[in-house]
Amino acid sequence: MRLVPFLTAILVTVGLYLLVFERDKLMAFAKAEAATTLQDETAAKTASNTTDQTASSVMRVVVQRSEANEIDSAVILRGQTRAIRQVDVRSETTSTVLSEPKRKGTFVTAGDMLCELDPGTRPAQLAEAKARKAQAESSMPEADARLAEAKARLEEARINNNAAQKLAETGYASETRRISTQAAVSSAEAGIKSAEAGLETSRASIEAATAAVAAAQREIDRLTIEAPFQGLLESDTAELGSLMQPGSLCATIIQLNPIKVVGYVPETAVNRVQVGALAGAELATGLQVQGRVTFLSRSADPNTRTFEVEVTVDNPELLIRDGQTATIAISSDGAKAHRLPQSALTLNNDGQLGVRTVGQGNIVAFVPVEVVRDTPVGVWLTGLPETADVIVVGQDYVIEGVTVEPTWREASE
Q: Which residue of 95, 151, 233, 295 could cross-link 310, Cys pair, CB 3.0 to 4.6 Å?
């Protein structure tokens, strides 16, 4: 029983001794122990934080494995129908309308009369022009006879002149006679020139009279305004009794068979369109037609940077009207492409369009692509390999060269 109090007394004495005489050493020992413990705790926390940061720095993304498929890379455009021809038939002369009007919607063929005008005094003017022409033509024989007479006189004068010169050389004729015969030759030559001038005047009179007859006949022909081609009247013809002047509208005609479907192709796809290529169009009414490309503009619109393209289709029953909205599909060479969600598209730092893929080691790469077709279920892209692992969620939060943690998704999801 006495042993316990004795041990207690010894421990108390030692403790008092340390506190009083060895206090500095005791405090240093206590501080060193505390520092060692704190370092161990700090190292443990640092290791834990590093592990957490490493785990949290790997970005999680959703990846879709895509395989290339063969598609018909048709060029899809929006456009409208346009009449193959549309002409405003106008008057070329001044007169009043004598014919009953034809109503719009009437089918006409080439040469059908649209407007008939009052001839007035034009038939009398034509008869006068013909009379002047006949008179001019009647003067031609007289002018020819005068020219022939002048030529005969010149020949006679030359013969007399030659004889007078020979007689004068031998002394059998006087110098006066020789000079007289030379004057007769000169006079005959002047007579020929006069006769030729008269002949030319007669010919000019005939040509002028002929032109006057043609002008009078043309003026009479203008009194009947005819349809230049087969088509439909888009407006009523001029009303009976109305005054027509040069430039006045008689009627508007449009030709709808065949008909054109006009669209505008962007400059990125203009090289995929060729003249003569097969094309189809679906109208807003649901009617589907086929034709071929007959025109592709060589000059771009300065505002939209697009090129006009025309597709000509048959319209024998006139079911297609002018100005209808249409969706145009122009055939082009087939190509392999990937169908991906439109949201998978992104831009790199250079502004280039593309997608981000996951390669070996889950490292992100950027692949430039080209949009071939846009559909309600996704976009068709070219530029990717046959099989590609494309990031479809989270691609805007990673950059090329980083490591990611992919979550795979089926293409049908």
A: 295
